[in-house]
Amino acid sequence: MLRHVISAARAFAQIPHGIIRSPRLTSDAKNLLIWQLSLHPDDRECLSDTARKAGIPKTAFQRAKRTLLAEGYLHEWRMQAAQGRFTTVQLVSNVVLTPEEAAAVRDGRRRAPGASRLVAPSAAEPAVGGPNDRAVGGQPKKNTRENTHRPTAPARPPVPARRPEAPEAPEAPQAVQPAATAPAPPEDGAAEELLRSLARTQPRLALSARTVRSWAPLLEPWLAGGLSPARIREALTQGLSDARSPLGVLRWRLEHARPELPPPPPPVPPVEHVQPRVTAMRECEGTHTQPLLFRPVDGETRCPACRSGGDAPRSVGSGFAAFLAARAPRAAGPRPV
């Protein structure tokens, strides 16, 4: 991807990257916010007029306005004027402001140094309170001709390889008992890898390398407790679609919301080896249409039916011959009219 950018000498606006690259702001919301931030500070153009000039329909304008209010870039108040009429005061900013901070900007107040309250500046020199920090840094005053890039974090020392232990002698097989065993310790770097993988499920949970290294010790008890990575990922990422500060919710869950392990499965009773019934049966040596199995009592070789008919084998012949012999008397008799 090639880019050709020329710095504008006049008629330009400074927009933070957080607004342009925000995945939660729609195109109409960004258009409204950037348009408002490009106006002169004394211009009192309201959002509805900006939407009409930008060609944004009414329904899309209402949806974009709700998005800006929810993200903290837009604040509005319904106030009563001196003559009893009500008016709407709107405030847009290029950074996210809380309702208290937005009210302070509206009333011309600022935070006193070292205090949590907001005070109004006085006419004395210097005014009450110290200067606030800029949300976005400015350009350096002079060219120092030095490399001022932010240095990367130092590389972690390599983990020494473990020596292979001698294999132990195999023990005699024992019956499996469902006992609670201590879970295996997590592998080196498993917590960091799991934290980096959260961004694939929730893009808002993308963490820097320093944050991953500092939060990895909070995740190690989860892995040491025997929880699977899928269960941990589900517990950390579910319900974050409407969260205003997903990273803050993630940090709180790492410290306080570790799920409990599921109860161990009930013990499985041992299965007894049962001999099939057919192993105790044998085939009758008598004459049958099909092989006949029976259960001998005292070593008999013929079934009870053959033994009751005498010791001599029956001379019926094959099954088909017996069928013809049974049909012959019936075929010779008179047929009913």
Explain this structure to me?
- It is a single chain.
- With 337 residues, the protein is mainly α.
- Among the domains are: 17-110, Arc Repressor Mutant, subunit A (Orthogonal Bundle), CATH 1.10.10; 190-256, no CATH class.
- 34% of the residues lie in helices and 7% in strands.
- The chain is built from eleven helices and six strands.
- Strands 1-2 form a two-stranded antiparallel sheet. It has a two-stranded antiparallel sheet with strand order 3-4.
- A hairpin with a 5-residue loop joins strand 1 (74-80) and strand 2.
- Helix 6 packs across helix 7.
- The longest helix has 16 residues, at 209-224.
- It is elongated, with a radius of gyration of 43 Å.
- The termini are far apart.
Keywords:
34% helix, Arc Repressor Mutant, subunit A, 337 residues, two-stranded antiparallel ribbon, mainly alpha, single chain
Strand order of the biggest β-sheet? 1-2
Q: Determine the CATH superfamily of the domain at 17-110.
A: Winged helix-like DNA-binding domain superfamily/Winged helix DNA-binding domain
Q: Distance N terminus to C terminus?
A: 103 Å
How many strand segments? Answer: 6
Count, helices: 11
Give the topology string: H per helix, E per strand: HHHHEEHEEHHHHEEHH
The helix-and-strand class reads mainly alpha
The stretches of 5 or more residues where confidence is low (pLDDT under 50) are: 111-128, 175-182, 311-317
What is the CATH class of the domain at 17-110?
Mainly Alpha
What's the CATH topology label of the domain at 17-110?
A: Arc Repressor Mutant, subunit A
User: Portion of residues in helices?
Assistant: 25-40%
